[in-house]
Amino acid sequence: MDIKTEQFVDVARKELKNDRNKQFLGVLPYGITISRQRSMQTFADPEAANDYGRAIRAEVIARLSELLEEFEKNAAANGAKIIWAETAAEANAFVLNLARERGVRYVTKGKSMVTEEMGLNDVLQENGIEPFETDLGEFIAQQLHRPPFHIVGPALNIPVEEISDLFIAKADMKEPTTDPVKLGYAARLYLRDKFHHLAMGITGVNMAVAETGSIINVENEGNIRLNKSSPRIQVSIMSLEKVVPTMADAMHMIRLLCRNCTGQKLSAYVSIDSGPKKSDEMDGPEELYIIILDNGRSKIYQDQQTREALRCIRCGACLAACPVYCKIGGYPYGWAYSGPMGQVLSPLLIGLDRTHDLFHACTLCGACKQFCPAGIDHPKMFLYYRMLEAQADTEQKGDFIPDKPAKLFDLWSWGAARAWRWKIAVKTMRPMMNYHAKDGVIRKTVAPLYGWFRTRDLPVMAKKTFHDRWTKIKKSR
Amino acid sequence: MSQRAREEILGKLKGAPKAKTVPRPYVPPLTELSWNGEQLIANFTQNLTAQTGVVHRVKDSAEAKAKLAEIFAEEGLTTIMASTDAVVAPLDLRAWGKEMGVRVLTAGDFADRDAYKNAVFTEVQAGVTGADYGVAESGTIGLIHDRNQPRLISIAPITHIALLPVGRLFPVYESVTERVFGDKNKLPGQFTFTTGPSMTGDIQGGQFKGMHGPRKLIVILIG
């Protein structure tokens, strides 16, 4: 997947004019929020349940290396093969080589944000191994070559007419239809054949349990269960923060994940793998590979503030809460992760230099933080990124902006330090500032302040300052 | 590659500034833990029905077979695959099927994995399994997958019929996971929780059942 985070403003402008998506976004978040709130009420004390989940995630981050070692030891004892990968390229190379060694012609995939982050599909495709996304939304997004509109429902916004055309062209559907059930059934039939003859299935991991060495997948469609049950080879890829201490912790987090994600008490399927199949079993993987991917996370971990981003469990609750996402949808975020969780994760994974607009596209209202079952303080993260940018931090690639803002504020500080300088500045600036004023409001001005006025107004600067008027009043008495 | 990457990653994580682990906050016990037997059954049924699962309650194995016959007739099922777990095996469904005119297959009928997969993906109209556990808090069944409980039987066919003795019904997930994962030396290769049929809302948020797995989940509670 190409990274298009730098096009945030342009794509957001375009999406703001997309009537269809606007209409859709006008309804979707409310539905999700209502069902989320209703399902949270099934806890005796919803806030205590949230706090407990937040504490689990905080503990995971604090004990990360210890938990990963425990998970590795137990998963290996279960018979899984653990592969560590520092970069996406290393992980991709491992999957590709394995597929080649085993003579695999195609693979199927369960929906996995981390494989989107790795760009695994492109690597496999370029090397002659066809990857089939099998989550319905992901399948549609893959065929349309679009980024996810929403991390949970990647193609929620696509009109049925467009899906119908797509399935006729690419999924062997015979007759056009606008019935979502018929469309879904066409995808079922098409992908069923892929599952039937599958040699290698690829999945993500929702949680990895340290105390048992088990991996857990949470889903509604059943595609992940088929991905794991039909082939002889299973590859499950986890970013390193997916580990949790105990099975009981995993169960608590799953309760929160499902409620915050889709408003369900539990998703239709939760499958827990502890090693490959036993020798006397008829189905299930003979080989289970678990890839633990770093891809910059150990660097993120070095800073106690940035490591807070690793709490995220990808439930997507923050998307429906965000007034910005609810206006522009997922496309402007330009990569696998959208909404507030994308604004938190992408800058650290890609660099502040390529995501400047992401962590600035926020009013700091804090709705995301209130919803987050993992305890991420999104606004605090954005302010921290802005600070790193202002300080030209090299670790997170915040040193990309020419020092214009800093110089401007130095000048401001110099000017404001003495009354005479301030007075001269006001007199000089007034005609410049008021030059574009209309109906008592300044809506634009000359560079370098032009950008500031892109989304803000100011009242016109008064012809006389308070001091001028005060002096005049005193004289007239 | 992997060993070097492992050392690098763990080295960096261990070398990072340490953060304190704070004690977990108090969380009230789950109210479901106070449910008695009939409440467990009522809540299990209510929760699963809310997910469009169908729940029947019968007294014993004989009634379970009669209920199966009723379901088979209603659904027009003529070829099914059954697991051979401790709930289903004693029912001797193959002999029962012969009387009923239903072809009952098991994974053991097939010489190899490919032949078994051909049958479970293309031939059978339903999978009939026992359930190792039921969880009342969400109307969920739990299956331990092993040689007698193959994984595809409960996910590949369009209908899944599960037989659950009421004694296997528990209030919350933890009551089940403590039993399944309590002994690290006896972990099943796979354990699954199922709550209703396969579903999706990926086309414009409209929900429909039977996306990749069963369109119908029918649970027969025995006892």
CATH class wording of the largest domain in chain A? Alpha Beta
Ranges of chain B with pLDDT <50 over ≥5 residues?
none
Head-to-tail CA distance between termini of chain A: 73 Å
> What is the third-level CATH name, the topology of chain B?
Rossmann fold
Contiguous runs where pLDDT drops below 50 for at least 5 residues of chain A: none
Helix content percent band of chain B: 25-40%
Q: What's the CATH architecture name of the largest domain in chain A? A: 3-Layer(aba) Sandwich
* Content-based structural category of chain B: alpha/beta
Total strands of chain B: 12
Oligomer: heterodimer
Strand content of chain B: 15-25%
Please characterize this protein's 3D structure:
Chain A has 477 residues and is an alpha/beta fold. Chain A folds into three domains: 1-41 and 312-401, no CATH class; 46-295, NagB/RpiA/CoA transferase-like (Rossmann fold, 3-Layer(aba) Sandwich), CATH 3.40.50; 404-476, no CATH class. Chain A has 22 helices and twelve strands. In chain A, the strands form three sheets. Chain A has a six-stranded parallel beta sheet with strand order 1-10-7-4-2-3, sandwiched between helices. In chain A, helix 9 (160-170) packs parallel to helix 10. Chain A is elongated, with a radius of gyration of 26 Å. The relative contact order of chain A is 0.12. Chain B is of the alpha/beta class. Chain B has a single domain (36-200, 211-222), classed as NagB/RpiA/CoA transferase-like (Rossmann fold), CATH 3.40.50.10420. Chain B has six helices and twelve strands. The chains are: A alpha/beta (477), B alpha/beta (223). The interface between A and B is large, with 105 and 80 residues. Strand 9 of chain A pairs antiparallel with strand 9 (190-194) of chain B, so a sheet runs across the interface.
Task: Describe, in short, the structure shown.
By secondary structure, chain A is an alpha/beta fold. Chain A contains 22 helices and 12 strands.
